[in-house]
Amino acid sequence: MIRVLVVDDSAFVRQALVRMLSSAPDIEVVGTAVDGRDGVEKALALRPDVVTLDIKMPRMGGLEALRRIMAECPVPVLLMSSLTSDGGEITLRGLELGALDFVDKSRAPGHMSLSDLAEEVKAKVRALAQVPRDRVHPVDSLLAEPRPPVLAPQARGADVVVIGTSTGGPPALQTIIPKLPPGLSTAILVVQHMPVGFTRSLADRLNAKSAIPVREAQDGENVCPGVVLIAPAGHHMKIKRRGSVARVWLDDEPRASLHRPSVDVLMASVAKAYGPRSLGVVLTGMGSDGVEGLRAIRETGGRTFAESEESCVIYGMPKAAVEAGVVDRSVPLARMADEILAAV
To answer: Which residue in 25, 149, 133 sits closest to 74, CA to CA?
Structure first.
């Protein structure tokens, strides 16, 4: 049984979350808290498996409560966020502080109904409950790890690197992108599964911490060496090449794809555009998006990496790729930036 603590200052939201979580036979709500201070105290007393945590609350806000929880009783935290003028930035800061995932409450049809989010919330609670406690920590602790020695360059380089990730991805990207040096000779393309509106905040935060430019991709722009482009949530990102010029193409096809943007869709287009000069990387996340994309890159002579189980928050996407036989090498997160640099 998964034991959950619900922390939210809205009585309506608390009741809605308790109802939706309690409807699952494998989930038990062991307590509720009305603000951050109450949440920290109950997290210490109840030792739940997962905490759902509102960000904006009186007395003690969600981010301060998150800092205290990570310091005093680390536990998987699911943020209950809203996309407002500053909501994306605050949510990304929460993921840096140790939260593992978030749900965008503002996607519910009207503030008096969260029922449309029920399956997403339950699925994420189940996934977070499986995360080993030693992988629950702020991003700063990962960035403090000593860097391994740079590996010898490979004989075969890459002109483009595609990185795909889902749950646990924003902190993982922050351990990779800021380590890439200025003047990098390859383009970096990223698909991060997250709700519409949040990828701009992700790009801005990565840009502020990195030596190379990071931005949300725009339809029609050129793919350039030394630039990181984040696929905007809600659209597939594809690369189309004519001669030596490669450009970003944003559209909604295939509409049947489980994720938009899709790692598979971007990687397949990169494999077609760059062939053996491409590198595909799959990081932590739920599901199997990326398997067919890595296969396409491999079949055209490109190289493929997956984050190894020892560092994954959720060993889902990498595991699916390894089991499908489309991964050249599994790499711990702390070494991934150097492995990418050696490959390009």
So the answer is: 133
289 is catalytic: yes
One of 81, 82, 166, 288 is an active-site residue; which one?
Answer: 166
Catalytic residue among 289, 308, 311, 330: 289
* CATH superfamily ID and name for 2-137: Response regulator (3.40.50.2300)
Q: Is a pLDDT exceeding 50 seen at residue 151? A: no
Q: Give the pLDDT confidence of 199-246 residue by residue, as tens digits.
A: 999 999 999 999 999 999 999 999 999 999 999 999 999 999 998 899
Check 9, 159, 193, 330 and give the catalytic one: 193
CA distance 153 to 136: 33
Give Cα separations from 285 to 55, 128, 218, 288, 328 (angstroms).
23, 11, 25, 8, 19
Per CATH, the number for 153-343 is: 3.40.50.180
Q: Over the chain, what is the mean pLDDT?
A: 92
Which residue do the tokens 């049947």 mark? Answer: 256
Task: Reply yes or no on whether 23 is catalytic.
Answer: no
106 is catalytic: no
